[in-house]
Structures are given as C-alpha cells and as structure tokens.
Amino acid sequence: MSGMGARTAESLTTTFHALAHPIRREIVALLTRVEHATVLEIAGHFAIPLNGISKHLKVLESAGILKRAISGRTHYCSLQTAPLAQAEAWIAHYRQFWQERLDGLERFLENKKPQEQSQEQESI
Predict the structure, then answer these.
(1) Do the domain assignments include residue 106?
(2) Residue 120 domain-assigned?
(3) pTM above 0.90?
(4) Residue 58 belongs to a domain with what CATH number?
C-alpha cells in the first residue's frame, strides 16, 4: 500500500470525501438495498430540498460511487462498488498493520508483567 500511486491516492481521497457526509452515506446505504432508484425516490427519504439531494448525488457520481442512467426525464441511480472496494482494501491493509502493532505491544506488556512482579517481590 505504501507504493500507492498518485492516481489511487486521489481516488481514495475523492471516495472518502464523498462518504464524509451523513446524507451521502445514507444514499449509499439506500442504494445497497435496491438495484436502482430514481432521484425522486431517493429524495423522498430525506427532509431536504431536491436541489440539495441533487448536489449530494453529483458528489457521489463524481467519485464514481453512483452511476446515473437517464431515460426521458427520469434519472436512475445505481451503486458502483469499485471505489468502495478500493477504500475497503486500503482500510483492511491498515487494520492489519495496526492489529500487528497492537498484538506486539500486548506481548511486550505481558512479558513485562512477570519482570515487574519479580522486582516488587525482591524489594519486599
């Protein structure tokens, strides 16, 4: 992961930015439950104006998380999982990194306990 290219890093930044807002995360969650939804169907789940929802959808679309298909005057939105999978892979890498570090710290502290206990008994 440390050899991640600038393009991948930029893509992750865009993905995390898109997911940073709770309404956009809720839109993503909504789209995981259906194959596709119209903009009006998505907007019906939120108490904000349609133009606000449209702005959120554009951010998700720019990040590649949402795909929009237009049929006449109806816009259909569907979830694109590739950017989410890339973000999950990045998170999994660092989860493993930190898990290994924390396991090492735990072993260090466990090994240190008997030394501290023996030092306490020697001072008694």
Answers:
(1) no
(2) no
(3) no
(4) 1.10.10.10
Q: What's the confidence (pLDDT) of residue 114?
A: 73
Count: domains in the chain:
1
* Residue 62 pLDDT grade (very low, low, confident, very high; cuts 50, 70, 90): very high
- In this structure, are residues 70 and 76 in contact, taking their beta carbons and an 8 Å threshold? yes
Record the tokens describing residue 53, joined without a space: 């929802």
Q: Structural domain of residue 53, as residue ranges? A: 6-82
Q: Give CA 124 to chain center in angstroms.
A: 54
Alpha carbon 76 to its chain centroid, in Å, reads: 23
Is residue 88 a part of any domain in this protein? no
Distance CA(118)–CA(99), nearest Å, equals 29
In a domain, 118, yes or no: no
What is the per-residue pLDDT across 73-110, written as a single tens digit (0 to 9) for each? Answer: 999 999 999 999 999 999 998 888 888 889 889 888 88
- Nearest-angstrom CA–CA distance, 123 and 118: 9
